[in-house]
Amino acid sequence: MKLTLEAHGRTTSVDLFSRQGLELVAGLWVKLYAQYRFTHDITWMGVPIIQFPEDIMMMQELIWKVRPDVIVECGFAHGGSALFYASFLELMGKGRVIGVDVEIRHYNRIAVQNHPMSQRVTMIEGSSVDPETVARVRSLIRPGDRVLVTLDSNHSKDHVLKELMIYKDLVSPGSYLVAMDGAQALVWDMPSGRPEWREDNPLAAIEEFMAQNHEFEIDEHFTRLLVTSNPRGFLRKKT
Ligand SMILES: C[S@@+](CC[C@H](N)C(=O)[O-])C[C@H]1O[C@@H](n2cnc3c(N)ncnc32)[C@H](O)[C@@H]1O
Predict the structure, then answer these.
(1) pTM for the model
(2) Is domain 40-237 classified as CATH 3.40.50.620?
């Protein structure tokens, strides 16, 4: 079976069952997912979680591998991803989530406070790159805690680069700094996309960060399903 795509004045033709065919279909599926906003139509235990299902699955694999004491999440939104991490920590019998967002809406805060997993979640309102916010996050981490960090807030290159530079120091050796939504670089040309996303995206921040920070390595294991919003986003701190 041949697959032919015409885009941006170029025609690409590949065998569907080849690696290129797989990558082409996965890339197109990511664009369709984003265009149809499927990620905005998923809930975890009743609370919206703005993630691809494949990425949710990869995060549980990652949490099981790292067994963190603390997960710091920049970009809390409704709290669905934080509650998902908290649920998995509950199953593991240890750990807590610190969720940071520049604005935690009242009804989201109440819903999280009344949720069965609320005991494992602490919410902090403030910009993830504001020194005061960072100090509050740090104050909740105890010496010896094993820390995993996810970045899912403002997806501009500058903001993600600042977050990477700030939060890298919190990550424990062998644990991960997960920079989400690098796929913004790949969906700029969908009907609801924006041309500036082509350059201004988390993936560009990851590449710049990785060129300068040799204490981290990109782990492609957690993006192996190819349908992901987080290409090259799993940065493992070397031991
Ligand atoms: C994509 S949503 C997060 C989705 C959430 N992690 C989930 O999976 O359900 C992005 C969030 O980042 C927040 N945000 C934007 N700029 C921010 C900043 N400077 N600091 C912290 N949060 C920010 C927004 O308010 C929004 O709630």
Answers:
(1) 0.97
(2) no
